[in-house]
Amino acid sequence: MDSTAQILEENLETILKGEGLEVREFDSVPEQVKPVTLRKSVCYIVSGVIFNSKDEVLMVQEAKMECYGRWYLPAGRMEERESIVEALQREVKEEAGIDCQPITLLMVQEQGPKWVRFIFLAEEKG
């Protein structure tokens, strides 16, 4: 793992353990700041973007009733004691049946204190 990926992984693990990183600047301040309890009131989601040799992206068809038949990237919730990489690998294996390895973090999305989604570029391994 290169140094940038190592730093990223360490920072994510620090945050997910309930510790914080120093924020030196920000664009705006929320009107009302509400405390959240990490891993108790926030849902962490991982998602993988995986391309094949034809530059086609891997999508899975949903089976849940509320979104049955829709196509999405393989994604799901992190379990309590999983690392972010383990969660990504488990979700891709469960939903698409392939083993993967993350390459880099593409995006972090959040919905207030409800959920945080980590979207990774990953590659099939094996």
TrEMBL record:
Gene3D superfamilies: Nucleoside Triphosphate Pyrophosphohydrolase. SUPFAM superfamilies: Nudix (SSF55811). Pfam families: NUDIX. It comes from the Eukaryota. InterPro entries: NUDIX_hydrolase-like_dom_sf, NUDIX_hydrolase_CS, NUDIX_hydrolase_dom. GO terms for molecular function: 8-oxo-dGDP phosphatase activity; 8-oxo-GDP phosphatase activity. Keywords: Hydrolase. Residues 41-126 form the Nudix hydrolase domain. This is 8-oxo-dGDP phosphatase NUDT18-like. It comes from Sinocyclocheilus anshuiensis. The gene is LOC107682747.
